Target: DUF1476 domain-containing protein
Amino acid sequence: MTTFDERERAFENQFAHDQEMQFRITARRNRLLGEWAAARMGLTPEETDAYAKAVVQADFEEAGDEDVIRKIVGDLTSAGIDIDEPTVRSALEEQAVIARRQFMEQK
Model:
């Protein structure tokens, strides 16, 4: 194996590792956002856990964050909570920072 092949393999491995870490951070962020929304809806701990998992699953509907934001806004509105999309986007950004911090602390 040449040095070039070794470097190429190292870059591929690093890329795969980075993608996996980003996936985990995004999933954690979505879970935290689900917990944030559940607290506003006054859900029980069991309901909060199930709802947070549903938010994580909602992210697989389409690329990007729009599916998660749409779910949270829709669910909060259905629960009678006055909320707008910018508020949810702001909470999403806050939860992303927390998720990244938690992930880095684990290492």
